[in-house]
Specification:
Elements (H helix, E strand, L loop, with lengths): L22 H10 L14 E6 L1 E6 L2 H10 L8 H11 L8 H11 L5 H6 L1 H18 L3 E3 H18 L7 H15 L4 H4 L9 H5 L1 H19 L9 H7 L11 H32 L1 H15 L13 H13 L6 E4 L4 E3 L2 E3 L4 E4 L1 H4 L41 H18 E5 L6 E4 L3 E4 L3 E6 L2
Parallel strand pairs: 2-7
Antiparallel strand pairs: 1-2, 3-11, 4-7, 5-6, 8-11, 9-10
Helix pairs in contact: 6-7, 6-17, 7-13, 8-11, 11-13, 13-14, 13-15, 13-17, 14-17
């Protein structure tokens, strides 16, 4: 038998659990890294069940996931843990609301993210990509924390497309408030794991009260200022939300509803894209051959300029890298639902009140669904129709699929293509990021890369 040599190295991943954890051990593990509570067998089975305070199930079977997210959506609302963590910051916005309240908000906000409106906002993304290149060039050739840089870049985008550069918008104040809130309130509380009602005080949320008040105050001031401004130019997200109305009832959002949805879009709109870009850059540095192929594609299309919205369709390999980064490091590594009635999934009994999770991190690495699931292979997305729909859920799916998914993908492709066309990125020995999920799956320690300027 020929010697095939050692297997190729794999990008960083989370060591999943190999033994059951009790309630307190689960709490401790979850506070350090929520993904560490996932059992390793979730990558080899269609469903795993257990009890940690409450009955729970982890579902990795695409047909069962389709039933939860599409066919029986109202039977599986978001779990109390999810709502208790996020409601203090974003109220009953699209992300939290259920039933009729969610449906009318979704109908009102959907036109905001139409293809036409997203394309109209592309020049803001191109300009932010160019500014990122200038900052990286000024910092180089020493190592640069690309995670911090991508957070700055995507926050520039979301603040400009939301507020059109209004002077009333305290960009740095909101940025600090978001980070303070996530740091203070984002870690799973024992009360949350036990399903305690929202009125039971959580110590970390009391700490985060100042950050919350600051976030909401800034959003309220921006809405008040915009109400007295004459429209002009390309409408931004705030313009579109304020003008939007439910096509069935003609109802418009109140100031509180506008504020909560604005904060949802600001937090999610920069965080998820910053993460997908950070992990994409790490993976490109991890695999120089992939990076070289992507750079050749970007340079052939861009010819030295920043990428535009019209270029996105001409950059398929860049898009595949983003898709693969979202597979390996989905920003929402776990989504959780609470069953409202008895059901059967994968032949297993579900009782009303059970917690039913879709561990997207494990789903995306499940050996029943993916070939070499821990390997970085962008080409697996060359034919997107070959990817089972409910096996790949970086933005969820069904009626509640992320409303800003097309916005995020366009932004990520524009920025990644622009960066790869102008720099060669190399890893810094001993500085690999650690995938850690608190609310989102972040690269703990940052993404430190050497950036060699090429043009």
């Amino acid at each position: 038998m020929p010697d095939t040599g050692p297997p190729p190295p794999l990008p960083v991943h989370v060591p999943l659990g190999t033994r059951p954890l009790g309630l307190l051990a689960s709490l401790g593990a979850a506070r350090r890294n929520l993904l560490s509570i996932l059992p390793k067998i979730a990558t080899t089975q269609p469903m795993v069940s257990g009890r940690t305070g409450v009955r729970w199930h982890m579902v990795m079977d695409p047909d069962a996931i389709r039933a939860m997210l599409l066919e029986r959506l109202d039977d599986y609302p978001k779990s109390l843990v999810t709502k208790n963590l996020l409601r203090p910051a974003i109220g009953e916005s699209l992300f939290i609301a259920e039933g009729a309240h969610w449906r009318w908000q979704r109908r009102t906000a959907a036109p905001v993210f139409s293809h036409r409106n997203v394309m109209n906002l592309a020049p803001i993304m191109s300009a932010a990509a160019a500014r990122a290149c200038d900052r990286i060039a000024a910092a180089g050739p020493r190592a640069v924390n690309l995670y911090d840089e991508m957070v700055t870049t995507t926050f520039d985008v979301i603040s400009d497309v939301t507020f059109s550069g209004d002077s009333v918008f305290d960009r740095q104040g909101v940025h600090r408030a978001i980070d303070d809130y996530i740091a203070a309130a984002g870690k799973v509380s024992l009360f949350d794991m036990l399903g305690m009602p929202d009125w039971v005080p959580r110590p970390r949320r009391l700490i985060s009260g100042k950050a919350l008040r600051q976030m909401k105050s800034v959003a309220d001031r921006a809405i008040d200022a915009r109400a007295g401004r004459s429209p002009g130019g390309v409408p931004d997200l705030l313009d579109l939300l304020m003008a939007g109305e439910d096509p069935e009832t003609r109802r418009k959002m109140s100031v509180a509803e506008l504020r909560d949805n604005l904060l949802t879009f600001i937090v999610a709109g920069h965080e998820t894209t910053a993460l997908s870009l950070s992990w994409s850059l790490y993976l490109c540095a991890f695999d120089p051959a992939v990076q070289d192929r992507a750079r050749a594609e970007a340079q052939a299309v861009l010819q030295g300029r920043a990428a535009t919205g019209e270029d996105v369709a001409q950059l398929p390999y860049i898009r595949q890298i983003v898709d693969e980064a979202l597979r390996l490091y989905p920003p929402a590594g776990i989504i959780s639902r609470t069953a409202q009635k008895a059901d059967t999934l994968c032949g297993r009994e579900i009782r009303a009140g059970d917690t039913v999770m879709i561990p997207i991190y494990a789903l995306h690495r499940n050996r029943l669904l993916w070939d070499a699931p821990d390997a970085f292979r962008p080409e697996r997305f060359a034919d997107r129709k070959a990817v089972p729909r409910y096996a790949y859920l970086p933005f969820g799916d069904g009626p509640r699929i992320c409303i800003g998914a097309s916005f995020a993908i366009q932004e990520a492709v524009i920025i990644l293509a622009t960066l790869l066309s102008r720099f060669r990125f190399r890893p810094v020995p001993g500085r690999d990021p650690a995938p850690v999920m608190i609310i989102t799956l972040r690269p703990e320690g940052g993404v430190w890369l050497e950036a060699e300027r090429l043009q």
